[in-house]
Write a structure and sequence with these properties.
The chain has about 40 residues and is an alpha+beta fold. About 20% of the residues lie in helices and about 35% in strands. It has a two-stranded antiparallel ribbon with strand order 1-2. Strand 1 and strand 2 form a beta hairpin.
Length: about 40
């Protein structure tokens, strides 16, 4: 069963630890990490 199509799925890595998050139903906003990185750099 493909559960990813039922929500938002995120994997990130910070300070040597991996973080997993899944939200169902999907959030009404679309996350774009590229825009956030451009603001930091």
């Amino acid at each position: 069963m493909d559960i990813i199509k039922f929500g938002d799925f995120l994997i990130s890595n910070s300070q040597g630890k991996t973080f997993f998050s899944f939200a169902s139903p999907p959030l009404p906003i679309r996350l774009n990490l590229v825009d956030q990185v451009k603001q930091i750099n």
